[in-house]
């Protein structure tokens, strides 16, 4: 049995195979291989995996109901402002709302409410326009029908309103209009006067045949009146000469 001498090396402890192992600190805590940095990294990873960002549902989203209420407020304001100044057709009001970016469905809903309370009435609007254009401007049905179309009145509603005017009404209005306007061309050649007066009636939608007939009737009346005036003047002169 051999003895270990003073200069002999102490026996070596066998090394464990595998990766680095945990070690104990002075206080008894076990520190994993890699040191405190590994702990820090692990904590960071856990924090990253456990805390997620805001989802789409958590983001601030505009309240759709509030936006729709704002659109309705704009639509009502536009309609009432226009209706205060003059009657308007439904199509005219819808066009004005569209210029203010009011959605179509909101505009239709507001217009339906205004129709229910009588503030929007295309039939009444068309009837008013027919009466005023015919009586005040001397327009015929054709010109009024075109204006109704431009103002968004549907064909059936326009046709119903135009039944208030017939051919006799048109001729009476045209005759009155030519009589009032004929004086502006007095002194000009008859052909020039005829052309101007017929063109005026045509612009107001009167049929060319009726326009020529009415203009000639008025100018013939003027010529006949002028002849009577001339005869009266001549008779007066003769009577003055024959007086003692």
TrEMBL record:
Origin superkingdom: Bacteria
Gene3D superfamilies (alphabetical): Winged helix-like DNA-binding domain superfamily/Winged helix DNA-binding domain (1.10.10.10)
Biased composition annotated in UniProt, kind: Low complexity: 1-10, 19-53
Statement: the UniProt record of this protein carries the keyword Cytoplasm: yes
GO cellular component, one term: cytoplasm
Domain RecX first three-helical: 75-114
Chain spans, region Disordered: 1-64, 220-244
GO terms of biological process kind: regulation of DNA repair
Keywords: Cytoplasm
Basic and acidic residues: bias regions: 233-244
Compartment(s) of residence: Cytoplasm
Residue ranges of domain RecX second three-helical in the record: 121-162
Location (main, coarse): cytoplasm
Start-end of Acidic residues biased regions: 220-232
A Pfam family matched in the record: RecX_HTH1
Function as written in the Swiss-Prot or TrEMBL entry: Modulates RecA activity.
Similarity-based family: Belongs to the RecX family.
Name this polypeptide is given: Regulatory protein RecX
Native organism: Litorihabitans aurantiacus
Gene that encodes it: recX
